[in-house]
Structures are given as structure tokens and as C-alpha cells.
Fold:
Amino acid sequence: MTPIAFHPEPPAQRAPERVVASVCCYCGTGCGVRVRARGEQVVAVEGDPDHPSSRGKLCSKGLALADTVRRDAARVRQALWRPARGEPLQPLPLDEALERAAERLAATIGAHGPDAVGFYLSGQLLTEDYAVFNKLARALVGTNNIDTNSRLCMSSAVSGYKQTLGADAPPACYEDLDVADAVLIAGSNMAYAHPVLFRRLEAAKAARPDMRIVVVDPRRTDTAALAELHLPIAAGTDVALFHAMLHVLVAENLVDRGYIARHTAGFEALEARVRAWTPQAAAQTCGVPAEDIVRAARWFGQSGATLSLYTMGLNQSASGTAKNAALIHLHLATGQIGRPGAGPFSLTGQPNAMGGREAGGMATLLPGHRDPADAAHRAEVATAWGVSALPAMPGMPALQMFDAMLEGRIKVLWIAGTNPAQSLPDQARVRRALARAEFVIVQEAYAGTETLAYADLVLPAATWPEKDGTVTNSERRISRVRAAVPPPGDAMPDWRLACAVARRLAARIAPAKAALFDYPDEAAVFAEHAGLTAGRDLDYSALDYAALAAGPVQWPWRGHGGTARLYADGRYPTPDGRARFVDVDYAPVAEDVTADYPLRLTTGRLRDHWHTMARTSLSATLVRHVEEPWVSLHPHDMRRMQLAEDQLARVRSRRGAVVLPARADEALQPGLAFLPMHWGSAFLAGDGVNALTLPARDPHSHQPELKHSAVSVAAAALPWQAAGWLRGDVAALRRALAPWLARFPYAVLLPAALGGGGLRLRLADQAAPPPAVLEELAAALGLARPDAAFDDPARGELRRAARAGPGDPRPAAFLLAGDVRAHAALLAWADGAPAAGGLARLLMGREAAVRARTVCACNGVSDAAIAAGIARGLGLDGLKAELGCGTGCGSCVPEIRGMLCRAPSCPETSAAMRPV
Amino acid sequence: MDRKPRLVVVGNGMAGVRTLEELLRLAPDLYDITVFGAEPHPNYNRILLSPVLTGEQRFQDIVLNDLDWYRSHGIDLRLNRPVARIDRVRRVVHAEDGSQAPYDRLLLATGSNPFVLPVPGRDLDGVIAFRDIGDVERMIAAAGRGGRAVVIGGGLLGLEAANGLAARGMQVSVVHLGDSLLERQLDAQAAGLLQRSLQARGLEFLMARETRELLDDGQGRVCGVRFADGSQVPAELVVMAAGIRPNTALAERSGLRVDRGVVVSDTMQTYDPAIYAVGECVSHRGTCYGLVAPLFEQARVAANHLARYGIARYEGSITSTKLKVTGIDVFSAGDYAGGEGTEAITLADPADGLYKRLVIRDGRLVGACLYGDTADGAWYFRLIREGVPIEALREHLMYGEGEARQAATQASAAEAAGHAAAAP
Structure:
């Protein structure tokens, strides 16, 4: 059989081990890590006990970071270019690539003006990267068309904060999780998305059981399992709920009239508006009992300190700004802000969305939280940068840039650190736009992202932990990110690539400006950036790398101390110092359900994956928790659609469709469907999950309504199925097998931990493909000459398995085409179970096998083991002691608690199930 | 005229005697029967010569009809009496020793001769065939002296001979003209498995070699084999197992039509209606059979006509083969190779020594080739012979008869339940 390229073992390194303190590159919690590295290899990543935000804790994703540090073909290690659309990318010397980028930008600016250029960046870039890109776009190119994927993430939180509190600044800090008396979690599955903060909340709740926790989420998530009260509101009705809560607060005199009078403005109009939002009225709209709304409001108003935690459920909405404002209103009306344990606390999705905004790396921002529409702000920045002026023409936010590309107005798009061909809504339109653009530059670290397929030029980016710089987390804390290993190949930090192109571009269009991009190092970039915060709400102009060496600090920072909480004095960064109540109205979702599209689709995160999986798909530990994408439906809807568990279904919206297995999930309400957001066309036939989602956007934040679209779900008649697995390096195998995704109506490539790591493949079609195609498929899996085979090609049947080779009996690959009954048995075999009765017997598929699912990633404890423990009468502590589950990062504890809740002999009946 | 008609049988082997057994069952007293046998033994089971060679059985174990059987049926058995000619005009058989036997009906069952390659040295001492018990005895004697044996021919007989000699301690090489063993019984995959398995037992294979000469040690004894490519191997014993040829010399001398074998009709009659022929010596519809099952079918038809029933017809056989090498299970039947217009279902697990190939044409099983697990060989053979549509069985076919039957039961139960549910 064909030799299989297994993950190459790193050569034994003799170099001494060094430990580098840095910050995790996933969510906005910003946990401190210690990277242990030797030579060019990262040996391990551990939590940094000295980091004040996380105090040594990491979640499952952070703990698996070492798996994702790659120097091989999983990475973009050199510049690439595409001679013509439709042809494969080819290597190019980096210098030549930089010249080409500059040449193309200069030509476009010359012919069509600066606004024919757009920059689409990422909340994963470091502050220094943003600072340079921002200067490049505005000071050199002369356009405000610079935006980031924060537009999909935190944009509504920003506009919500700005409209009410006057500045884009989360006023609370993580310590507030420890000391809050009541916590309202809205539109956040923080058990999955911010696990370390959720651990902290769990600990606080355990220490102070009187803490009241309310979760507002259409789904009964693992986060909801910690709550006394779960409000499963109809998707998109948050404003109605918050208005009704304010109605109750007013009616029961739980508002702080003194605080409202002293520190706010605009309450009267809002008070008048919410008068109509009685709990009964909201109950109609939100689909939750009026008494639950009253209870939530009372807890909010009566508690000593009330904290709100919220994220994408509020933000990713066509009325995201209103939702944020409506929630912040509750804090302003009750004075629950500026005190320990109190405040509206937006949890940031990306590691440096905050820093990006500080650096002004968005169309609607300038450095130092300035406004590009404000001529004085533009002048300040121009002066600081040493240019005569900044462009006045408003820049386009993300989705508008893609619209402009489709209309031919933006001709060159420079994408860095983000994957719009997966993550933007309405993929068909996004892909048309990328195809229409004249020149697409993709600056990327990982090979195999969807957007690379649309790149004309690829610049090799360094990534974590190869970069130096700073990030700001959700609690306004600036930390140093430090390189632990050098980047592979020609890869360079993003800011250096931006500088390199900028200098070449300046030589062509404005030679005097080349000097704007002569930074010796990151510290110099930061120094310039920090200077621009002087006198602003976030002021950290006194901060430099030397000061940061002592440890992270929270802005505003004026030389010492830092600021744990904002607005303790009730003074807000508005012209009159008062916070604002905004008279926002409840608006229904942008796309309501109809007879043709009767289900509400919401998307969200999984615990062990992040964004488009460029990184997490490389970790064998992380791919175990949820091994494949499926659409979750309430059991009633499964029956209504006549769908059996795991039956393939076509999920269709007005914009596109995907085919996935359907599974019943009682945590959903009837009428609601759920899809994980992670799977794009690099893993799934079609245009990925966002083929379905809606580009409708909030008028203030321009954030799209990713959380709600109307869909239909129907059984997909694809009786011919195939399932395969191949051991080896996921990145290499994905590249080799990717073409198969385009050949079947249902196809998935699934990174798998089985047998030490590899790729799984599932296919389905209306009829069996011809025998030659089956043979081609088998050959693609290294099964042209298998160790065991059961073939009936005339019937579309091919079942094959192979071991690694002579003298190496480890499973190497299998394929089941046609009859996949042996799938579970073969997955177990691939994962080390003996082939009782021989491999051929296994292929015949008559052996019963049930596949266990990993719940605890750290200690590899399966659902079956936990269920057996629960059946023996073990509680959470007993399970931890006996099985070790939940004793690592703890990310799985909510799920274990959920399993305990559902057990008939429930030793720890959930708080949420208890009558209150 | 109360004289019984006389039946003379030339050939005391499995086909001839089987015909007599069938005849005696149908019409015990119809004929006066005379049997001429060239060998000095009563009818023995030639198929079991291999176990005798390996020592797993003795000669007396494989005798099918002992002398008492002939006596008790009043058969005039003339052993060691090769027949010289047939006087078809006078209907008299003349033996080489001059004795005679007149007949009313004659049954030819002269069997086959081993094919001895026409190469120099074929007559040397130590060059033997593998055809009868005499050959086996010579091989056993040679094996007792140890040394090297070369078996020419990688067919059923050759492999069984090689396995037997190896079992008796000789160092054995099998020379085969083709690339793949048992070409007439196995496809290349199964043959590969078989070869590996035999190699594991110590047999050496010299594939794709054409034998040019058997080498003389100078004293009239074989001492080696030389091939067309010039290479040679030493050998103290050479076994010719390059195939068999129908033994038609007597028929030809007697003026019967012969085309490779003695040409017979579907009633097993030669061109002389008084003379029947069965077994390896015949050619029926252009096919000569070398396996036991067709011979038995021919015997049944010939007996039917000799018994004057006159209703049976022989329309040819679908054959199946098993290799009689202990511990190696090989089975093939029908058109195992497949080809144009056929579909194949295969199951292979070489590491576990398992291979199965089922060939389907027009929704019917037409061939099977099994290696390693031949338990369902008989079932497949039945399906092939009966030619029943197997579409409903297809999914279960490879799992064997038990599984298929169980599935069929479940299906019909489900169907019955469905009907019941549909009933008003």
C-alpha cells in the first residue's frame, strides 16, 4: 500500500528549555500562559499563575496550544501567487511578493483612487499589527476602508457602550465575577466560549451559594446548567425582555432614582416606552413565563451587586446595539455599575479585539478611541503620524467592503489573519465578491483556510507563539505577547509584512512617507500607538514595554496602579459627563420564519473548537469532544420533519444550503435549529455553515445577524453513503482529500484523534458512484491494495482496511462505501480496539460496536465512563475522584453536571431544576 | 434365450466402478459383468492419494470396493489385465494376456494418463508421475532417502505431491510454467495467498520457469532440472505433475471417434451405440473433466441407460475444486475468474489468510473462489448449479448460508408483519 506520511516526530532537541510568559491566542479572556520551548519546538503550554486575569488557569483549548504550533506544511511558510484565477498557487520569493503587492496597490490607487483599496483584518492581530496597518491604510494609501472581523464579534458591544456610557470600555473586571451577588448572563455560552471565566464563576457560586445566576439563552446550554433561572427566550427578543425587566424595576421601585438623576440623561423617554412592556407583554414576545421575567428583574434590582455578562447572543444581531443598550440600561437605572461586582460586562470574543479598537483598526474608529468622522480627531492623528491630513471619506465596514467589491468599487482587498470565505454570512455573496475583486492579498499563517482559495497573492504570516507585541483583554488589561520560537520559513510578524509593503508602496506613490514605516521593533510601534491614547478615555500613554515587563496593566493607566473598574465616580466620557438612556425599540429579527422556512437557525461555538478551526483542527485532543458537524433540532421538529437520529438533512435558507446529519436536542426549543459556527467549506461540502446565515446588519454597529436566520430542514435522500479514516497528519491529509468535498452533495472531512491523529471522511450521494470512482476514492485513502477488503463495486460497495505496513500492525486507514454498518466497529479499531475475529470480519459490519465520546479532553474520559459512574451513584466529586474527569482545565464540568442532571437518580439536582 | 446380456467394463477406477454401483442399484441382475483393471488393486479413491503420500492415511483406508464387493455382486474382476483391443464387429474385448470377454454392452472407463513433458531425460530413474498408488509408493520410497525433490507443475496434483514430499522430509521445489498457482482453479489473489502459505511450510516455488531438460547423473538417474533460461536446480526426485491427458489409446485403436477424449453423447454413448464411456477418458460437448464430481454425474447417466431406463441426460458439469492439503482450505467453482458481463464481490484479508470471490452474472451466482474459509463452498456451489436469482440474497451472500437464511427469515417475518399491519 501507499506509504502514509505520519505526523513527523520532531528531532530530539538538545537545546536548553526556556520558559516564555505570554497570553493565550484564543478568546478575549486573555489568559496568561507559560510557553516552554526548546530550539524551534514548543514543548508545552501551561497556565501562568502570575497572570492576574487567569491566575494560572487555562481551558481545554489553551492547554492544547502546543499541538497547534507547527513548522510544516500545515503552515504558509513562503509567499505564494496565483498566475491566473483557477490555477494553483505557486511559491514566490518573499521580496518579489512584497514588490507585487506594492505594485498592485500603487497601480490601483493611481487608476481608481485610494478607496478602491480595502483592508480586512482580524481581532487576532496584535495591537502593533493594527497600528501599522491603520497607518498604512489611512496615512499612506489614504483610505478609511480598514475593518476587521471584530465587526462580526464585538461591534454591537462597542456601539452599545458608546451610545450609553460614552466610550468603548467594559467598565467591570474579572474580580467582579467573584463578588457579584447576582449575575445575568445573556447571549453567552461562557461555559464553552470563555471557560476560564466560567470556572471562576462556578467557584464563586460554590463559595457563595446565595449568588443568583440567570441565564438568558434560547438554548439550554451548559452555561444554563449553573443557573437558578434559565430564560429560554425566543431568538432575538432580548430587548423585549430587558425592557420588561426595566418595567418591573420601575414598577417595584427598584430603580435608583438618585443615581439616574445625578449621572444619567434620557431616562424619561425610556421609562415611558417600557411602560408598555409589561412582563405579560414580554412573555408573549419572548415565550417565557411573565413570573420568570419578574423574578429575574427582582434579583437584578434587589441584589447588592449585579453583574451582566454577555457576548455574541446580543452582538450578532440586526438590533445588536439596541440589545446592548437595553441591558446596560438596567445597570444605569439601578446604579449597578462602577462598584465591585456590578456592571455591564461585555465578554470579548477574540484575543485582541479590544486592542484593535484602541489602535483604531476599524472603519469607524481612529487610534485612541477616536472617530474618523470628527475632523479634529483626524487632525490629531495626522499630526501624531506626521502627515498633513487623514482621509475624510468614511470607510466601509466589513460587509460593505464585500458589497463594494461585488459592485466593482473596491478592487484590491488585503486580508490579514481572518477567513472571510468561512466566517462572513451569506457565503455565496461573499465568494462572488472575492471572485469579482481584481486582486486579493491574503496574509495568513495556516495553510488550508477557505479564503486562500480566493487569494491572488499570499503573504506568509507569523502567528502565536512566534510574535511579539501586546493584546488587551475583556477587562481592559494589556499584556505582553512574547515570541517563544522563530517563525517558520519566510513567515514574518504581520506588522513587519505591512511595513515592508508600505515602504515599497511609499516609494511608488509618496517617497517621503517611507519613513513612517521605519520601526526598529514592536516596542517602537507600541510607543507611537500608546502616545495616541494620551488624554483619551483609555489613556495609557505612559505605558511602554519596560513598564509591561513588570506585568499586565488595566487601562486607563497613568504611570501606576491601573484601573480595575470604570465610572466609580459616576462620571462618564460624554460631553456632559452623564451616561445616556437610549430610547431603543424592540425590533423583531430581520428574517422571520415563514411556511417555506419555518425554523429559526442559530449558530454558536463548541467547547473545543475556535472560529474556523485553522488552529484547533490540528490538535488531536481538541477534535475529540465534538467530532463532526450536525444540525440540532428539538425532538418534536425531528418528528415533524420525519427525521431519524443522524439522518442526513438538507438545511436550506434563502441564500444557500448545507447537508448534515440531524440530531435531536432537548436543550433547544421547538422551532429552533442550531449549527456550530466552525465548519466551513474546507471541511464540509458546499459553502459551509455561513452559506445559510443572513447579512442583515445593525444600523449602528454594522454587525450582521449571524445568530438568526429562517431555514427549512428536510430529509436529504442520499442513500449511498461512505465513511473513511486515514491516519496521518491532518493538514497534509486535508489538502490531499479536499477535492472530494466538491464531488458529493454531502461530504465532510473531520480531523480525528483516532489512532494518534488523522482525518475522517464521510460522503453521501443519491446513487452509488461508478466503480472507477470508488477505486479512486480507495486509492486516495491509501487503500488501493488494502490488507482487508470486501468489495461489490457493481453495487457501489467497497469496504477496505489497511494496517500501517509489514511489521507495523497499527491501523492505517479504512473505507466503507455503500454499507457503513461497520463504521462504529472500524472507528473503534482505528482507535486501538482489537479486530476480534480478524479485519475482514470487522469489515462485514456484523460486530456490534458503540462509540464512546470524549467529554473530558484533558484526561480522556468518555461519556460512557461518566454515565457508568453516575449509574453507580457517583456525584460530581465522586466522578472527579474516581475517573479524573473535570480535574484538568475543568472545561467539561458543566457538561458533566448536565449529565448528572439528566440522570434519573440525580444526586446533584441542578439548581435550575429546583423550584425557587 | 435366458442368457443375461453381458456388460464388460474396461477400467477399474472410480468412474467405471461408480457406474456399476449405480447400475446395480437400478437393475441388480440385468447383466453378467466383467471388469478389466490394469492395476493390481481393486477400486480405490484416487482423490485420497495425497493423504496416503503425506502419511495421513494408508492404502487400505482409501479402498472403495474391496474384492468381496465384486464377488458378492458376481462380477468377474480381472486385475492386472490391460486391454489390448476391442473387436467391435464381434463385440469381444481382447486383453494383452490374450484373454477375451464378449460383450453386449461395453463401458470404457480408461481414465487418464499423466502428461509427461517431452524433454530429454524424461525416462531417467527418479522421474515419476503422480497418478496411481504405484507412483505414491515410489515417492514414499524416494522420500525415505531424503534429499531434494522437484515437482513440475503447480496444479492441484503438483501441489499435493509437493506438500506430501515435504511432509515426508524432502526439500521440495515446485516448478510452474505460469505466474500463478492453480490457474484453472484460483484467481491471482487466492493463488498468491496459497503460495505464501505453502512457502511458510517450507516449499520453494520456481515460477514462470519452462523445463527444458532433466539432467542425468551419468548413471541413468535424474540429478537435476534445467530450465529454458539456462538456470538449473539439483534434484534426486522429479515428479511430473504437468497435467493429465485422457487415455484414449484403446478407443482410437478400436476406431471410435476421439477428439482429445472419447467423444460421447449426452447419453454417454460413443459413436458405437453399444459402447459407453465415462470418466476422465471422455470428451463431452468438447470438455474433458479431471475432477470426481462430473465423473459421478456421468456414471449416473450411463447407468441409467445401461439399466434400460433411457431417460437420463448428461448436460455437462459445473465443477468445483478443493485442494487436499491439510490446513489449507481452497475451494473454487464455476466461472470464478469472471470477466465481461460479470460482477464480483470480493472479501480479502491476506493477513488472516482469507479470500473470497463470488462472481455474478445476470443476477445469478456463476462462480466462487474461496481461500481460507471454505465452509460455504457447498452452498455457493449449489447456488451456482441451481442458477437461482440471488439479488435478494446478495447483501448477505458473502456472510454465508446461515446468515443469509437468518436474514431471509427476518425479511419474510417483517414482510408478514407488514402484510398483517396492512390487512384491514
Summary: Confidence is low (pLDDT under 50) at residues 420-424 of chain B. Chain B has twelve helices and 26 strands. Residues 401-422 of chain B form the longest helix (22 residues). The CA atoms of residues 198 and 372 of chain B lie 13 Å apart.
